[in-house]
Amino acid sequence: MTEANPSFVTALIAQRGNVAASRERLDTAIARADALEPALHAFTYRPRSYVEPDACAPLAGLPVGVKDLIDTSDMPTSYGSPIYRGHRPAADAAIVTKLREYGALLFGKTVTTEFAWRQPGPTVNPWRETHTPGGSSSGSAAAVGAGIVPLALGTQTVGSVIRPAAYCGAVGYKPSYGSISREGVHPLAASLDHIGFFAQSVETAALAHALFVAGRPEAIDTVAAWQTWFAPLAAPPRLGVVRTPFDARMQDAQKANFEASLARLRAAGADIVEIGFGADLAQIVDALHVILRVEAWHAVGPAAQTHRAQLSEPMRALIDEGAAMPEARYRDALALQAKLRAESAALLAGCDALVSVPATGAAPEGLDDTGDPVFCAPWSLLGVPAVTVPSGWTEQGLPLGFQIIGAYGEDLAALRAAAWVESAIGARRDLDPGRDAERDAGLRARCEAAA
């Protein structure tokens, strides 16, 4: 199966030209944001009014959240930093230009941590307000997880799409490195930064892939064209299980959920194999941190020269470590990255995709830390496509996720495998509307208490 919500993209295509349907999508998003945002704090800015949706465009007025790391000429863009409070970029980022070209409505700017590093913003997890939504794409994850918008833009340098998507019960999709222009996106580490997407289903993530990665708007010209382009797998996939040196960090609930998900996939016909991953994962993560520190020093260091007091302690530490990093270590890390990216297809060991956990467990309690990204870090260094899908719930009602990883440049194949996994696991939010009702009740109660 390819569609987590079989009606969404097909309905979007079938309703093209229907102004009332486009307006209803926008009105629904506005109503949910008005009701939930006082407690959720997913957005830094929402326009007071919106232009009439272009119902004939490919995205037909689809409301889309845009991470506040991404330039918008008509909305403030502060990069999560007080240094840029009220900043209005002169031009849109390239990805925003594409959004407008395809007829999307920029619903608002979503909260990011400071320059996409560790200092959190005010966003809470939509499923439990005392828990983090993850980061750095906190607001985008929460806005999709709360059902306000069906699609939102994020960025990932280490784990900033995949991990918060898992924490918030959304689908996260990190395309292959370099497949989307990052012009107009504030860098953290240029050799690691990716633009990615939060969606309510793999099908919606695949829609984003068709438009913004593959550049194939004709794939959504008709329902038949879409169903041909994003066709189901001809047979159940062969999936390679990645065990890591970091598995001891996993919470018991995440371990149990991962094994239960593997059992469901086997029962559905998947060939599940344990692979000896042909690379040193600890070395990969170390290389990522070397590159991150040096390139963050170059990206954010100039701001520190004149506004150091306005940077958080974690950011000051990051750029200071980058300034002190030996150049030879940085060059070696870049060489390892290039080698492994070129070998990524071979690292799949003949599998259609690799599978792993996206995080150590459910969203941690507390809002001062956005969680451990270690299970995303290897795939960010390699720049390969990664997708996370909801895979279950903890006893406390917090979402858990399951990560699917593809070969570099083989994003559509990874998405097709992810859609099959999503259907076979059967833990989608839309299969259990009672949980959505509980989530909304909790957020609304907090809004009323605050009022």
Descriptors:
451 residues; alpha/beta; Amidase signature (AS) enzymes; disordered N terminus
Report on the biggest sheet: 11 strands, mixed
**What shape does the CA trace take?**
globular
Give the CA-CA distance, first to last residue: 44 Å
Classified by CATH, the class is: Alpha Beta
Give the CATH topology. Amidase signature (AS) enzymes
Proportion in helices: 40-55%
Instruction: Give the low-confidence spans.
Output: 1-6
What this model shows, in words?
The chain has 15 helices and eleven strands. With 451 residues, it is α/β, with parallel strands linked by helices. An eleven-stranded mixed sheet has the order 1-3-2-4-6-5-10-11-9-7-8, sandwiched between helices. A hairpin with a 5-residue loop joins strand 10 and strand 11.
In short:
Helix content is 41%, strand content 13%.
What's the layout of helices and strands?
Blueprint lengths: L7 H7 L4 H22 L2 E3 L17 E5 L26 H8 L3 E6 L27 H8 L5 E6 L5 H7 L2 E4 L19 E6 L2 H12 L9 H7 L8 E4 L10 H16 L3 E4 L6 H27 L5 H12 L2 H16 L1 H4 L5 E4 L20 H6 L3 E8 L5 E7 L5 H15 L7 H18 L1
Parallel strand pairs: 2-3, 2-4, 7-8, 7-9
Antiparallel strand pairs: 1-3, 4-6, 5-6, 5-10, 9-11, 10-11
Helix pairs in contact: 2-15, 4-5, 6-14, 9-10, 9-11
